[in-house]
Amino acid sequence: MQLIRSISLRRKEKEMEFGEKIRKARTAKGLSQRELAEACGMSLRTIQNYELGTRLPKKKDTYLALAKALDINEEVLLDQDASFVLRATERYGSRGARQAWDMVADLAAMWSGGEMDEEDMDAIMQAMQEAYWEAKKNNRKYVPKKYRKEGET
User: Fold this and answer.
1) Which residues form the domain of 64?
2) Phi, psi for residue 116 in degrees, rounded to 5
3) What are the Cα distances from residue 64, in Å, to 44, 74, 105, 120?
4) Is 82 within 8 Å of 56 (Cβ atoms)?
5) Looking at the whole model, is its pTM more than 0.90?
6) Which of 8, 28, 99, 135 could serve as a FRET partner for 127 with CA atoms 20 to 30 Å apart?
7) Which residues of 90-117 are buried (b: 16+ CB within 10 A; e: fewer)?
8) How would you write the pLDDT of the chain (153 residues) with one tens digit per residue?
């Protein structure tokens, strides 16, 4: 139960970071939430959820629209972990997203409060993400052909 609570808190931390970035960029540009929503083609409630940290975008296009409307680089909004989770979502749906978030949270929990260099942590995270993609690729051969998407072998 403690681990589940820890993973949930890690997800909230990521969502809060994203929400804070959106809020800071929006206020720096002098936009209201409604104006940002209109500029991005989103609902006001969506922008509010992002800023409150209750939701994260599910598609890269959303990050691009927000970055464009806020006149910032998309990399400001889309950190390495979020990029990894987005790719997992695009390839494997909500289950892939959940697995990716769990992996990111577990790895972050491994070195929380530790004395590891940021560079080393990034290298470990990168290696684990590559291992995730390789494992997913290797496990595709066990999916019955009738459930495979077109073009998969």
Assistant:
1) 2-77
2) -95, 140
3) 17, 6, 25, 29
4) yes
5) no
6) 8
7) eeeeeebbbebbebbbebbeeeeeeeee
8) 444 444 444 444 454 588 899 999 999 999 999 999 999 999 999 999 999 988 888 888 999 999 999 999 888 888 778 888 888 888 888 888 888 888 888 887 777 777 777 788 888 888 888 888 888 888 776 667 776 666 554
Give me the DSSP letters along 43-85. -HHHHHHHHHTS---SSHHHHHHHHHHHTS-HHHH--HHHHHH
Q: Which two tokens stand for residue 84?
A: 């990894």
> Given the structure tokens 């459930």, which residue do they identify?
147
In the numeric block, the tokens 């998309």 are attached to 74
DSSP state letter for 147: G
Q: Is residue 150 part of a domain?
A: no
Q: What is the CATH number of the domain that holds 12?
A: 1.10.260.40
Residues 120 and 64 reside in one and the same domain: no
Examine residue 70 and state whether it is found in any structural domain, yes or no. yes
**Domain endpoint, select from 77, 107, 128:** 77
Give CA separation, 134 vs 88, 92, 122, 128, in Å: 12, 14, 18, 10
In a domain, 148, yes or no: no
